[in-house]
Amino acid sequence: MIGEVLYIGKFPSTNQLYTKTWQERKVIQDDFKDRLRPFIIAADLPKLAFFKLKYEYNSRYDVDNAAGGCIKIFVDLMRELKIIHNDTQGIFRGFEAYPNKNLPPQSFKITIY
Q1: Under a CB-based contact definition with an 8 Å cutoff, are residues 3 and 110 in contact?
Q2: Where is 20: in which H helix or E strand?
Q3: Residue of 57, 48, 49, 47 lying closest to 5 (CA atoms)
């Protein structure tokens, strides 16, 4: 394991993002990035040549609805924070996603390995 980020708070679902125009989606994504950024910075992640993610969450969302938007925004933030230089297949090598009722309500945990 390289690091872990535990985010507690409301997060966008994939369906929520799909139902919006690109302009509305950008507002939601930018707001979520602003709320998520301090959690990633606090994790003090090193620069990575490659990585995988494990995504665990506690909400009423289905797995695909919970993971899609959050993973994309998380990885984009890693790129913006210069933790990774891009998110191509050679660098971002995959992810797994699971519900986890042991986490606080309305939260997710991403483990980087």
Answers
A1: no
A2: none
A3: 57
Tokens of 91: 């660098």
What tokens does 104 get? 């606080």
How confident is the model over 23-42, as pLDDT tens digits? 999 999 999 999 999 999 99
pTM equals: 0.92
What CATH number is given to the structural domain containing 24? 3.30.1330
Tokens 């995988």 sit at which residue? 52
The structural domain count of the chain equals: 1
**Could you tell me if 50 and 90 are in contact, meaning their C-beta atoms sit under 8 angstroms apart?**
yes
Domain enclosing residue 76, as ranges? 3-112
Structure token digits, residue 103: 């986490």
Give the pLDDT of the chain (113 residues) as one tens digit per residue. Answer: 999 999 999 899 999 898 999 999 999 999 999 999 999 999 999 999 999 999 999 999 999 999 988 999 999 999 999 999 999 999 999 999 999 999 999 999 999 99
State the Cα–Cα distance between residues 85 and 87, nearest whole angstrom: 7
